[in-house]
Amino acid sequence: MSASAPAAAPAPAVSAPSVSAPTKIQLLELLAAIGTAQWQDFASAAARHGLTSMQAKVLAQLHGPVPMRGLAEALVCDASNITGIVDRLESHGFVRREVSPADRRVKNVVATDLGRETIRRVREEMQATHGALDTLEEEERATLYGLLERLRPVMEDRDTDRDRA
Predict the structure, then answer these.
(1) Nearby residues of 130 by Cβ (< 8 Å), 6 or more positions away
(2) I want to staple 46 with a disulfide (CB 3.0 to 4.6 A). Which of 51, 60, 78, 128 is the partner?
(3) What are phi and psi of 14, to 5 degrees?
(4) CA distances from 111 to 115, 138, 142 (A)
(5) Are 109 and 71 in contact (CB under 8 A)?
């Protein structure tokens, strides 16, 4: 008669180490680090085209005619700063000023063909940013895009919320 070995106790279940969700502060720090790196990449690409980072940022805001005051609000700076930036962009042929058809006292800033082409090239030449995005799979890029799209309206409505307070 053969003695059988006692049945071995079942192996304990191995669970993956629990990963806690990042805190809001951790997310904010990560967003800030990514934003800073993207801004530095943007500024470097703009400089290769003879633009300051603020000049390029103004060009990036021009998806149609934008009032000078609207640019100042979008860039969170004084309107007098925008005047100087637009003066320099205009002198190089990147933008032009037009009288607003709705209010002749208002000057709109409009990107010229040269300005639109230049900002397109600046964005294409942001190698560090493109390289970082290239590390993501297509599905990951789609997920990231969807998440950022969810955050965007909430973040852009911050001015409206502040005005109500």
Answers:
(1) none
(2) 51
(3) -95, 115
(4) 5, 32, 30
(5) yes
